[in-house]
Amino acid sequence: MDLEVDRAARRDEIGDDDADASPIVVGVNRSVAARAAASWAAAEARDRGVAVRLVAVIAHDHERSQAEDSMRWARAAVERAAPTVRIDEAIRFGDPSDVLVAESACAAMVCVGTRHRIGTPLEPMVTAVVERAQSAVAVIRPENFTGLAGSGIVSVVLDDTPDNDTVVATAMREGRLRNAVVRQIDHRVNSWVRRFPDVPVEIVADGSGQVPHPRDGVRPRLAVMPQTDAARLVGAASPCYHPIAGYPDFSMLFVPTDRSRHHPYDAAPPDLDSKEPT
C-alpha cells in the first residue's frame, strides 16, 4: 500500500478527535532487541492507557511467515509485561524506516530496538527513524529494559533551550514509570553548578526525604533528549562529546520539541501532578 494512502487511512481509523488514543508503535523483527522494545512499549502503553501497535515490515511476500513468527514473539513480550494492554498488529511492505516514519504520523511514540555494539554507530534505519519521525522515538537496547524493571538511571540534560522543560518532564515521568533515579546533567550557561565547578552539589527536593543517589559513574539505562539531537546520531560512536557520558551506548528516548507536533501526553506543565496546563 502507498505510504501516503496508508497514512490517511490510519488517521481516519484513529480520528482527529481521538489523539489521546494514539498507539505506541513498535517496529518488529526477529531480533531480541525488537522484543525488548515491545516489552518497553507495553509499560508505556499501560501507563498512558493506549494500545501497542506491532508493525513488521517485509520486502517480499515469501517473508510473511518470518514476520508472523516475529509478531508472535513480540506479542508474547507485550502480554508478559502488561497483560491488559490491547495489541494491534500489521504486516506491511516497504522500507522499514519509511514505514515506521509513516506510522509515526498517527502514533504517540515509535519504539525500535537496536543491536549496535558499544563503540560503534547506530544502525542507519534507527537514525533515519529518529530524524524523520513525527512523534517521540524510543531506541531500546535489550540489556537495558525488559519492561517494568526496577532501579537504574534515567539521564537528562538541563539546558537553556526554550523547550527543555518538555524534555525534562518526560524524563521525570520515565523515572516514575521505570522506578529509576533521574540524573540531571546541568548544562545551563549561567547555572550555579557551572559557575562553581569545584564545589560538590547535591540537589534534593524540599521535604522529599529522598536519599541522593551516589556518584557511581553507572551508565544510564535510558537517556531522554530532544529530537533535535538526532543530527548527532549519524556516525556517532563512543567515546564522543556529549553532556551524557557514554552517548550513544544506552537506550534513548527522543522527544519532539516543536510544540505543534507534541502528543498531548508530552506537553505537560511544570507541575506534573496538575490536571490543567499553566
Any overview of this molecule?
It is a single chain. The protein is of the alpha/beta class. It has 2 domains: 3-140, HUPs (Rossmann fold, 3-Layer(aba) Sandwich), CATH 3.40.50; 153-226 and 233-247, no CATH class. Helices cover 30% and strands 18% of the residues. The protein is built from 7 helices and 9 strands. The protein has a 9-stranded mixed beta sheet with strand order 3-2-1-4-5-9-8-6-7, with helices on both faces. Strand 1, helix 2 and strand 2 (52-58) form a beta-alpha-beta unit. The N and C termini lie far apart (43 Å). Residues 23-141 form the UspA domain. It comes from Mycolicibacterium hodleri. InterPro entries: Rossmann-like_a/b/a_fold, UspA. This is Universal stress protein.
How is this fold's topology laid out?
Elements: H1 3-14, E1 24-28, H2 32-48, E2 52-58, H3 64-81, E3 87-93, H4 96-104, E4 109-113, H5 124-132, E5 136-140, E6 153-158, H6 164-178, E7 181-186, H7 192-195, E8 222-226, E9 251-255
Parallel strand pairs: 1-2, 1-4, 2-3, 4-5, 6-7, 6-8, 8-9
Antiparallel strand pairs: 5-9
Compact overview of the structure:
The chain is an alpha/beta fold. Helices cover 30% and strands 18% of the residues.
Characteristic key phrases:
278 residues; alpha/beta; Rossmann fold; 2 domains; nine-stranded mixed beta sheet; 9 strands; 30% helix; disordered N terminus; disordered C terminus; Universal stress protein; UspA
CA gyration radius, whole angstroms = 19 Å
Shape: globular
Q: What would you give as the CATH superfamily of the largest domain? A: HUPs
Overall mean confidence score, pLDDT: 80
Share of helix, binned: 25-40%
User: What class do helices, strands and sheet pairing give?
Assistant: alpha/beta
- Give the beta-strand count: 9
CATH architecture of the largest domain: 3-Layer(aba) Sandwich
**Which fold name corresponds to the CATH topology of the largest domain?**
Rossmann fold
How far is the first residue's CA from the last residue's CA?
Answer: 43 Å
Unreliable runs:
1-12, 14-19, 207-216, 259-278
CATH class of the largest domain: Alpha Beta
Strand order of the largest sheet: 3-2-1-4-5-9-8-6-7
Largest sheet: 9 strands, mixed
Per DSSP, the total helix count is: 7
Indicate how many domains the architecture comprises: 2
- The share of residues in extended strands comes to 15-25%
- Secondary-structure element order, N to C: HEHEHEHEHEEHEHEE
Q: What's the oligomerization state? A: single chain
